């Protein structure tokens, strides 16, 4: 390609190179469209990164400062059960309470790492608190609520009252 023809080509953002005389817009408009497109892409990137006020795009689930532990809820005719994933914590870091149909699980995660070698010393710390309030949709026998903690999983059993157990009605399913 000759020098003269190279000068006639201009960039048009995502569309690549075009001849100057093929463009309806002037170069400044093309520049602004490209800049605005980049701005939108960066906005989406930061929105994904700071999802729900947390750095979820970088940290993932409960890996450092994302303090929203995963919760599994199950129910059968006798009890309502909840399991909460709390890796790196022990039972002394967690508080559980039940009042007026609300189960509150809160705690504080503290993590420290220290490495000492001949040529360097490294110390990392992370701290953070969490609190989850879960509505319990059944009447619970508060005197029989039990909680246990094993291998980073908090298990809570909320036995239903006799009245709540009687309200469960089995419905048979027939083929259509």
Can you offer a commentary on this structure?
- Helix content is 22%, strand content 38%.
- The chain is an alpha+beta fold and 176 residues long.
- Strands 3-4-9-8 form a 4-stranded antiparallel β-sheet, with no helix packed on it.
- The longest helix is centred in the first third of the chain and has 23 residues, at 27-49.
- The relative contact order is 0.12.
How do you describe this structure in short?
The chain has helices spanning 3-8, 27-49, 56-59, 162-166; strands spanning 9-11, 17-19, 71-75, 79-85, 94-99, 102-116, 121-135, 146-150, 153-159. It is α+β, with helices and mostly antiparallel strands.
Please indicate the percent range of residues in DSSP E strands (runs of 2 or more): 35-45%
Alpha-beta content class: alpha+beta
- What is the strand arrangement across the widest sheet? 3-4-9-8
Mean pLDDT: 77
Largest sheet: 4 strands, antiparallel
Total helix count?
4
Extended strand count? 9
Keywords:
flat; 4 helices; alpha+beta; 176 residues; 4-stranded antiparallel sheet; 22% helix; 3-stranded antiparallel sheet; single chain
Topology:
Blueprint: H1 3-8, E1 9-11, E2 17-19, H2 27-49, H3 56-59, E3 71-75, E4 79-85, E5 94-99, E6 102-116, E7 121-135, E8 146-150, E9 153-159, H4 162-166
Antiparallel strand pairs: 1-2, 3-4, 4-9, 5-6, 6-7, 8-9
